[in-house]
Amino acid sequence: MLFSQLGITQEVLNGTADEKTMLNYTNRVVVHILSEIVYSMNIKFLTKTARTQGQKILFFNDPFKFIPISNIAEIADKFTRNEILSPNEVRQIMGMKPVEDEKADELRNRNINSNENQSFTNTNDSSNSSETLDESFLRYVKEKYGGNQNE
């Protein structure tokens, strides 16, 4: 009875709760209790001078604690591929040290080949300057792979 009033289900107590139930429990119960404990500790254990200097007691929640490693890999891939987070930012969120490589701080899709010095020029000897990029690409594909395909 007491546990249900606190928002703790039998599955949470047994350790058999699924990811959504644990996330709901963490966000609705644990975070609020810890916030109140930290608030009280800041008042009781830190002097007024320490608090005005910006000193405070904090708690940290590990968002990946209940997520399987395969799901973490998918999440990291989606965030880096869609250029939301750099690989070093993902590593820091997971609690790992950042890599010293310069490319690890870049927001770019690593599945796409990026050649900075790549240029697309018209290799056709005829002076067809009104050819669009799509037409040029189609002509290139036909020359490379054979021109027997229907458009």
Overall pLDDT level: 79
Give the termini distance in whole angstroms. 71 Å
Amount of beta strand: under 5%
Proportion of helical residues = 40-55%
Radius of gyration in whole Å, from Cα? 28 Å
How would you sum up the major sheet?
A: none
Count of the separate structural domains:
3
Characterize the structure shown.
The structure is a single chain. The protein has 151 residues and is mostly helical. It has 3 domains: 1-61, no CATH class; 65-118, no CATH class; 119-151, no CATH class. It has 7 helices and no strands. The protein has helices at residues 2-5, 10-14, 19-45, 48-52, 69-81, 87-93, 133-145. The chain is elongated and about 75 Å long. The mean pLDDT is 79.
Characterize this entry briefly.
Helix content is 49%, strand content 0%. With 151 residues, it is mainly α. The protein folds into three domains: 1-61, no CATH class; 65-118, no CATH class; 119-151, no CATH class.
Q: In terms of topology, how is this protein built?
A:
Layout: H1 2-5, H2 10-14, H3 19-45, H4 48-52, H5 69-81, H6 87-93, H7 133-145
